[in-house]
C-alpha cells in the first residue's frame, strides 16, 4: 500500500483579545451545514474590498483524488470562485495522517499570509481543523510493517480480544476506546510499540486556546430538522452525480483503509443509500459534539439565513 470565543473576540497565543484583527478565518461545522456556501459568500465580499481570499481545506477525506463527489469537494465552478488548497492531491490507495496534513496546512497558511492573502480554513474534521490552526504534538505514523502486523492480528483474533490485550498493556488507554473500534485499537497498539503512547496528564493539548496566528473561529450550525433535511438532499445529489460509480472505481483501484473511512464508502459499495444517510446523520452529531469543545468558538445558525447575510455579519460584526 502506498504511503503518501465570544462574538467579536479573537485568539492569539493563549489570550482572547477583543478587537484584535484576525489574520485567519476558520469555518467549522457538521457535514451538510453549508460551510462552502458561506466561504464563497465571504470570499465575494473580501474581493470587493480588494483582498485575496483562499480556502484551505481541513477535511481528512477531501484530500483523496478520485473521491470528490463522495467527500463533497467544491466543484469546478465553486473553485473558480474561490481557490481551494489541500483537496484532491493524495492518491486513493495511499494512507495519510493528521501529522502529514499539519505540515502542509501550516506551510499553506504561512505562505498565504506572507503573500498578503486571507486564508479561510474550511472543514468538518475536528482534528484537522486544530492541526491547521495550532501547533499540536501529533503522534508519528506507523511503519507499514507495524500496521500490517497489527491488522493481521486483528483479523485473526478479532477486535475484542485485542482490546483485552490493550487492557493488559495500557488500561488507561483501553478504557477510552470502544472494544469494537478496530482502527483505534490497532493505533493504540502501534503507538505502544513505538513508545509514543503515554497516560494523559494535565490539559489536553488538543483543546488549548493557542493558535499559530490570530484566528476567528466560527462554528456553523442549523436547527436539527433543517440539517437532517439538507443531509438527505445532499446524499441524494451525490448519488445522482455518480458517487456509487466513484466508490466502485476507488475500490477497484485499491483504496487505502483511510480513504475507505469516507462517509458512505462501504454503504454505497453495498448499494445501501439509506444506510449512508443514517451514518451521515450520526457523524453530524459527533461533529457537533466536537464543536462544543472548541475553545473560543463563535456559533452562528444558518437556518433561515442567506449565506451572503451571514458573510456580511462575519466581516462587519
| Uncertain stretches of 5 or more adjacent residues | 1-20
Please indicate the percent range of residues in DSSP E strands (runs of 2 or more).
5-15%
CATH topology descriptor of the largest domain:
Rossmann fold
| SSE pattern, N- to C-terminal | EEEEHEHHEEHEHHHHHEHHHHEH
Which CATH architecture of the largest domain is right? 3-Layer(aba) Sandwich
Radius of gyration: 20 Å
Query: Which CATH class of the largest domain applies here?
Result: Alpha Beta
The number of helical elements comes to 14
Instruction: Count structural domains.
Output: 2
Mean pLDDT: 87
Main attributes?
single chain, 317 residues, alpha/beta, Rossmann fold, Histone, subunit A, 2 domains, six-stranded parallel sheet, two-stranded parallel sheet, 14 helices
Structure description:
With 317 residues, the protein is an alpha/beta fold. It folds into two domains: 2-136 and 205-315, Rossmann fold (3-Layer(aba) Sandwich); 144-194, Histone, subunit A, CATH 1.10.20.140. Helix content is 48%, strand content 12%. The protein is built from 14 helices and ten strands. The strands form three sheets. Strands 6-5-8-4-9-10 form a six-stranded parallel beta sheet, with helices on both faces. A two-stranded parallel ribbon has the order 1-7. A hairpin with a 2-residue loop joins strand 2 (11-12) and strand 3 (15-16). Helix 1 packs across helix 14 (307-315), helix 4 (98-114) crosses helix 5 (126-133) and helix 7 (159-169) packs parallel to helix 9 (182-194). The longest helix has 21 residues, at 273-293. It starts with a strand and ends with a helix.
